[in-house]
Structure prediction request, 145 residues.
Amino acid sequence: MRIFSVNDGNAWSIAALKAVVKDKKRYNPVYIYGEEGVGKSHLLNATNNALLSEQNQVILLSAENLTYHLVENLTYSEFDHILIDDLNQMPKDDVLEEQLAKLIEANKKQFIISSTVAPNSLEVSSKLQERLQWGSTTSIVSKNQ
Prediction:
């Protein structure tokens, strides 16, 4: 069993997530990146649970499942928090990237996103890269680094 603990490598990410749970849209989006196995998905799940316990409308998605139609539906959904895990695995699709950038730009939904790479290193449009950096971007590293 793997135990998750707060340490110098993840403290900033945890602080940003706690701030968003307390104050919707404090940082939008919150973008957390780091190599595989450092606890990004764990933090997204914990944040999802904390938001749900406060009666928020939340959806947690794998980036692999993102499609243009899903993002379009999210635009008109009741969800006020959208959590996306592993954005680096999002399908390459210019229309999808444009829709996601527009949804972030509208600033009507709180985004919390994880990835293995920084937003400016994602292989996506410069517009989406820019929107992903509007809020809080934090890296998370293992305790051993």
Remarks:
- The first helix runs from residue 11 to 22.
- Helices lie at 11-22, 40-53, 68-75, 94-106, 126-132.
- The chain has a mean pLDDT of 91.
- The longest strand covers residues 110-115.
